[in-house]
Every structure is written in structure tokens, then in C-alpha cells.
Task: structure prediction
Amino acid sequence: MTTDKPQLMETKVPVVEVTSSNMKEVWPSLVHSIKYSSFISLDLELSGLGDRRHLMRKSVDDRYTAIVDAAKTRSVLALGVSCWRVTQDEPEPQYYIQTYNILTLCRENFTVEPDALQFLVDHGFDFNKQYKDGIEYTPSTEDMIIFKEKKSTEPLRDVFAMILTAKCPVVTHNGLIDLAFLYQAFYAPLPANMSIFVADLQDMFKSGILDTKCLAEYLIREHATYLEYLFRKSVKRMEEAVSEGKQKVNLSFSEHKAIKTHVNHIECFAKKSASGKELCENYANHGYCKDGSKCPKSHDVNEAITSHDSHKSKKRKVEKQSDNRRNESVDSGCHRAGADAFMTGFIAANYALHLKHHPKKANGEVEGAKASKKSYQTSRDSHMSVTLEENRDIPLPLVLDPCRRAVNCLTLSGKNIPLKVMKSAFVKPSAAHMRQQHEIEKKYGK
Result:
């Protein structure tokens, strides 16, 4: 494959569209990309999540029960896989990126929620193409045929298995729900309770899981933490670094010459001109407005960032928003699972460089301001201190080491501390996971 010269940020992001029609042709490129990744960022498009109130229950175990119900009754419509390979650590990080948008089609009956359907249609999701060319999969059931018998007919299980054995961290955004859906759709039936699920996750992702929402919430302490906000904020930091001659993240993209007919070039970095409208505060803070495109106010994320940056002195509050980032609109015109996976990886790469130059943030400290006296501040800071000790042995690429404190922490919206992906001494991984892991290791090695 050809490594291009570093690209300017105006460059469109090449995303390979993977379907049942071209899977065999694209497969060698996808395998190569995953195998040689320094980290892999993931994103899913889903047919729904069920009752959002259940996802915000006070009890984490009750939330997990709601997630399991959603994962068993809804489906994965698309899987975004963005493979980031570090080609240079110093003096500036250099990444070579290959991104895939994989259309998927569940063989079993599943629920499609009207809100999810409307959101995806509004953002250009082609359901006709998905039903015609989606790659079929059978979700996991208690009496499922195990991996070794499915592998020849279900390539999506092979894709997930390769990600698990790639020996690199996986990056998500608000990833608890995505990880549960991935587990149920392409791995094994979800365990009965959260503690076993967490034990399985730790054993599955041995190089760690990084949640960009968790990074933004607990280390960077952004004003808002929805995906496009963090992406636009990262772009702004990158532009400032370029103009000031400081270290920046450098990107290059695969030309995908052998499969170029299947590549879409997505406009992720483009900016809209100022709207001149009053800013919609609900959208600016949470990435969601119940009035959608009918709202008379501005939904421009760059305007939101400018507004927030001018009010940095105001105390930031923990967001009480929905635990479903799919309610967050993406007005950039690049909303696809593949594009969102790229955006997630871009945020992680930029946060890692930002934390490298702000070691107090990387250590969980508040820079340039007295620490908050609120109990949630104290509890989450002490939790992140413990987390660093627990994460010391996780093999991270050098460029992501500044993010080590947040590894294996997943955001729990409305909670003061994240969910720690670490098995209890009193809990064993599930039998289904152990069987799957054994079969995967036989094929791909440990």
C-alpha cells in the first residue's frame, strides 16, 4: 500500500464502503489495516436503543439490564472501523489512517425505532442499499453455533476476532453501548450481569479500551462532550498549533489504489460560514435539540465552541444528558459509522498530544485554577488516581501513553465516576467468552 504525504486538514477523508458485493475484494486491505494498527477506533449505527429512561437508571446494574435488552432486540446497521498506525513518534506524531464503513444486515427479526430511522434518513443513511448489500450476520443466542462453525459464513465475526487479536487499544466514544452491541452481535450472548460483562471485556481487550467521552469528561474537562463538539475542538487546537508553530498531529491517508472504486471521500473538516443566528443552548451543550432542523436558532458547533471558550471562567457542571450519543446530531455532513470512527480516532490522537503538553491534566489535576470543593470532583479525581496504578502494565503505543489514566474507563452519563473495566476478584469471565476466546486464539494466535 502507498503511504501518502501528510495531508492538509481541508482534505476529505477517504472511507472504504464495504458491502456483501465487494467484501472479498476489500478483505485483504481490511485484514492488513487491522493487523498493523497502533490503535483502532470504532463506531456503530444502530436501529435503536429502547426506552432512554432505562439507560439513565440510578443503578448501573439496572442500566446494564436495559442495554442487554436493547442489544438483543435491536440490530447493528453499520460498523465503522478506523485503523491508525503510528509511523513517527517524535518530534511530532505521524499517523497513517485507513477507514472502513461496513454495512451490516441482521438475519433475525429486529426492532427499528422511528426516531433512529428518522435520524439516519436525515443524515443520508441508505436503507435500500443496506438491505440489498449489507453483510449478513446472525446475532448470538444461548444455543448458538460457536465461532469455529460460523467463521466461514459470517465475515463480521472474523472482523471482530481480528480486532480482538490485533494487540492494540480500541478507541470508542461513549463506548459502553457499542461494546455491548458488538459483543451480542459478533461474539457471544451477553452475560447476565454487568460484573461478568466487565470481566469479559478486560480479558477480550488486553491492550485496553479508551473512551474519548471519558477523556473529555474526566481529564480534559471540556464544556460539552458530544462527538462532533470534541472533533471540532480538536480541529481548532490543531489549527492553533499550526499557526503558532507548535507540535501537531500529522495525518496521511491510504490511496486504496486497488479498491479505489469503493472509496467515498467524506468532508469532515469543512467549516460552515457563520449563521448570524442566536445560538441554540441545548444543542450547543448536548448536541441535541428536540426541534431538529426546524429550530430557528443556530446549531453550528464551531459557534458553540467559540461561545464556550469565551465563558471559560464559568464553573462546568457534570452533564445530565442521555446515555445515548446517537441523539447527537452531526451537521458536518459526514455522519456515517466510518466517518464517526475516524472522528473518534482523531479526537484520541489530539487529546494524547494535548495531555503530553499538559501533564497536570494527564495526572487528573486541574490546571491554573483551584480544585473544586464539590464531592463529585474529589471522588472522580481519587478514582482516576487509582486507575493510573491499575493501568501501568497495559501495553499502549507511546503516542497514547499520556491517556493512560483513562484507559479501561467508560463513561456513565450523569455519574460522578466512570465505569472501570476491571474484573473483580470474586467474578470469573463467562463460559461463553472462554469458549470464543479459545476458538479465536486457535485461528489467530494469542
Remarks:
- The two ends are 26 Å apart (CA to CA).
- Residues 337-356 form the longest helix (20 residues).
